[in-house]
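Page 47, continued from p. 46.
Same chain as before, 283 aa.
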Amino acid sequence: MTMGIRFATRSDVGMLRDGNEDSAYASSRLLAVADGMGGHTGGEIASAAAIGALKSLDIDVPEDELVATLEEAVRRANDTVHGIVESNPSLQGMGTTLTAMLWSGSKLAVVQVGDSRAYLLRSGDLFQITHDQTLVQQLLDDGKISEDHAASHPYRSLLLQALDGRTQVTPNLQLREALLGDRYLLCSDGLWSMVTPEAIHHALSTIADAEQVVPHLIDLANASGGPDNITCVVADVIELDAQTTPSAAPPVTVGAAGTVGQGPGEALGQAASGTNRTARTET
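Result:
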């Protein structure tokens, strides 16, 4: 049996922002979401640069090299942001989160810098499989604040790490085994901060098609106020047959990184790649 992924991705400016600083990329081997910050054009430049640096990974990578390859690409992305700021000091302070998955066979490596998240729906249960690199998450981990306090904490958006080119980053990395029927969601905080885990779970578990669940999730965030850009990628692990080949699904770039040539919006695909009730974290 050959497994693959059927994916959909979309990036939306939201209800209050003038521009989109998010970027995303989806292909048969690589899924990524980046949430830029820095004001003016800085955030969109940073997120687009991070996605651009990762695109070179859209090749066949051996299973035992997935984590190291993804880690090195993240460091290159950080160096790229550093180089942009050096050449244009007016962009000082820009940066971006990055959450990505690199696939080979039934294995996938996951990387996270910042607070863009990855979720897994498996056998009806929803798991948050990334761990936010934020001050509030650290306070929660240390038992200094409650979940209720975290939701309204004045520094809930303060990142402990980002790809900003100023310092070396220590990304969260993991290697996972995918199963037939898994559904993965990567998203910026414009989605998860506005839509409850219960609503995310309900959408992912009741809407069968990735191409339908993606806009639905974005609509939920906008209905809750949409104060930020909203970006998500949904990927379903499927069994491939002779008609579902990698060539049937070209890579897709959306958001700030997709404004040159393709433009932001929604795109769908089905591609080869081998591949966890209320959300809870799986380690």
